[in-house]
Design goal:
Layout lengths: L5 H15 L14 H10 L7 E5 L5 H10 L2 E6 L2 H11 L4 E5 L12 E4 L9 H10 L6 E8 L5 H6 L11 H10 L2 E8 L1 H17 L1 H8 L1 H20 L3 E9 L1
Helix pairs in contact: 1-8, 1-9, 2-3, 5-7, 8-10, 9-10
């Protein structure tokens, strides 16, 4: 079963995800970020009332709906998964949100004050193309807020051990900064989230294992085993320093 079909995964993993996060930290995110980290990054990027936000690879848009509700921005989410966007639309209620189905890049038409990319940077092999597209969607002074898994590219052995390794494109921080600068960005804020995300990866692994039989009955044993294998690798890599998890805010010049 493919994770692009979000409905069964959303239903199967919800109970475990709710158990893994501290009270108030689960907002239907599909990642290691807690609600406090999501809000802090959005605030650092200047998200607030009257600010227009474009959220790339939003998934079911738990974080997007959270910041729209908490910070009063206007919000557009885009994701390639039609089922994920369907869930996001259904749960948005009366929030000032709209959603589009589409690959990124290209980006939706229009100019936005802030572009978000949470927990999905590693899926882009061509990061320069992405950064150029984001710069085109922002005015001078617009902010690009994102998280990134920073480190050297996977070795062949690491690729063999990581499920869906064709979606895991690490890059070292100096290279990322050079690419951002080439697209006209200056990094204004940087925070290391490695420790908290390692703890979350471990908590999610334990919760998925505890609820494993029920999860496997909905998404299949192979999908569960791959999910557990990936979470264990991220936990090990974050603990050892093989990968760092960073949150950055870059301003378009």
């Amino acid at each position: 079963m493919r994770q692009d079909d979000r409905d069964p995964f959303d239903e199967a993993l919800r109970r475990a995800r709710e158990a893994a996060y501290r009270p108030g930290e689960f907002v239907e995110q599909e990642s290691f970020m807690g609600a406090g980290e999501i809000r802090a990054l959005a605030e650092q990027a200047g998200v607030g009332p009257g600010v227009s936000v474009l959220d790339l690879c939003c998934g079911v848009a738990g974080p997007g709906r959270f910041i729209a509700r908490e910070l009063g921005c206007t919000y557009v989410g885009v994701d390639a998964s039609e089922s994920a966007v369907g869930i996001a639309r259904e749960r948005a209620g009366g929030l000032p949100c709209r959603f589009e189905v589409g690959q990124v890049p290209p980006l939706p038409d229009g100019t936005f004050d802030v572009v978000l990319l949470l927990e999905t940077m590693l899926a882009f092999p061509e990061k320069q193309t992405l950064f150029d597209a984001v710069a085109h969607a922002l005015p001078a002074g617009g902010r690009f807020a994102f998280t990134v898994e920073e480190g050297e590219p996977l070795t062949p052995a690491e690729q063999r051990s990581m499920p869906d390794a064709d979606t895991v494109w690490l890059a070292p921080l100096p290279e990322l900064r050079d690419l951002l600068a080439y697209s006209g960005f200056v990094v204004r804020r940087q925070e290391d989230l490695s420790s908290s995300h390692r703890a979350t990866a471990e908590a999610l692994t334990a919760a998925y294992e505890a609820d494993g039989d029920e999860i496997a009955s909905q998404i299949g044993r192979r999908a569960l085993d791959e999910l557990l294998a990936a979470h264990r690798l991220w936990s090990d890599w974050l603990a050892s320093g093989r990968v760092r998890k960073l949150a950055l805010v870059a301003e378009r010049q």
